[in-house]
């Protein structure tokens, strides 16, 4: 059996009923963690818990837009499993896909409520628990390559994910004195259920589009790859990594594609 990289740790994962969060939940349990699956998709979450067949995984309904529910989810993790070592603040919303000229500002408020206020609430309450219990914890936030490269995501979503990166860096500056690490993961285009639904496309269509514009060829980005990055940041292997935005994008965000594709 491979090394259990999260043996004895307790993790709370938001947006964990599907997509990246579900893959992370499975992987964390595989590596010895006790995991609270937090989401608002009751049926999908129940199916996920059943599929893992482990008493180290349980579901807690949590809408991250409601701070009281976030606080209750953290309290549940502590009560059920004895503490909280890892927060993967992954719940998100893609929001309106439109020209900036036609942006629905009211709809943008909903994106910010989930992607920014929700992340802030999860960091706040997870960190309170970690500080009170003197846990040298790891907080991981899902950002996006859209926070790094303009034009690679919808406007409201790009603004929200940029805010997540800034929020994580700010929290890192304060929480480091308590031994708590705060990092982000910025995925490239992954064919999650949320993305497929937003674009009205099948997973293979999203993957084909991502592969067409990707810098790193020969591999299709999957939710599992993002979960593996989260596993690294949750584990003691990243014990001195904090304040970073780990782009899982095959180099997309750092390459001038127009220049690199030029003929010489």
TrEMBL record:
<dbReference type="InterPro" id="IPR036291">
    <property type="entry name" value="NAD(P)-bd_dom_sf"/>
</dbReference>
<dbReference type="InterPro" id="IPR002347">
    <property type="entry name" value="SDR_fam"/>
</dbReference>
<dbReference type="GO" id="GO:0047500">
    <property type="term" value="F:(+)-borneol dehydrogenase activity"/>
</dbReference>
<keyword id="KW-0520">NAD</keyword>
<dbReference type="Pfam" id="PF13561">
    <property type="entry name" value="adh_short_C2"/>
</dbReference>
<comment type="similarity">
    <text>Belongs to the short-chain dehydrogenases/reductases (SDR) family.</text>
</comment>
<protein>
    <recommendedName>
        <fullName>(+)-borneol dehydrogenase</fullName>
        <ecNumber>1.1.1.198</ecNumber>
    </recommendedName>
</protein>
<comment type="function">
    <text>Involved in the biosynthesis of monoterpene natural products related to camphor. Catalayzes the oxidation of (+)-borneol to (+)-camphor. Shows absolute selectivity towards (+)-borneol. Catalyzes the oxidation of (+)-isoborneol to (-)-camphor. Shows absolute selectivity towards (+)-isoborneol.</text>
</comment>
């Amino acid at each position: 059996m491979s090394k259990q990289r999260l043996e004895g740790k307790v993790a709370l994962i938001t947006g964990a009923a599907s997509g990246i969060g579900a893959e992370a939940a499975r992987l964390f349990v595989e590596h010895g963690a006790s995991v609270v699956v937090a989401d608002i998709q009751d049926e999908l979450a129940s199916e996920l818990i059943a599929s893992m067949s482990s008493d180290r995984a349980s579901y807690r309904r949590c809408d991250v837009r409601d701070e009281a529910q976030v606080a209750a989810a953290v309290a549940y993790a502590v009560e059920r499993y004895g503490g909280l070592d890892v927060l993967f603040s992954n719940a998100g919303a893609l929001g309106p896909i439109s020209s900036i000229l036609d942006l629905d500002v009211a709809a943008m408020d909903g994106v910010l409520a989930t992607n920014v206020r929700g992340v802030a609430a999860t960091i706040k309450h997870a960190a309170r628990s970690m500080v009170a219990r003197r846990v040298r914890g790891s907080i991981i936030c899902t950002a996006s390559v859209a926070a790094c490269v303009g034009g690679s995501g919808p406007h409201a979503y790009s603004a929200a994910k940029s805010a997540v990166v800034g929020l994580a860096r700010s929290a890192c500056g304060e929480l480091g004195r308590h031994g708590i690490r705060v990092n982000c993961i910025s995925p490239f285009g992954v064919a999650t259920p949320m993305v497929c639904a937003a674009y009205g496309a099948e997973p293979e269509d999203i993957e084909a589009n991502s592969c067409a514009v990707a810098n790193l060829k020969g591999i299709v980005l999957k939710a599992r790859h993002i979960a593996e990055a989260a596993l690294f940041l949750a584990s003691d292997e990243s014990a001195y990594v904090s304040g970073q935005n780990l782009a899982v994008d095959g180099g997309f965000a750092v390459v001038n594609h127009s220049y690199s594709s030029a003929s010489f």
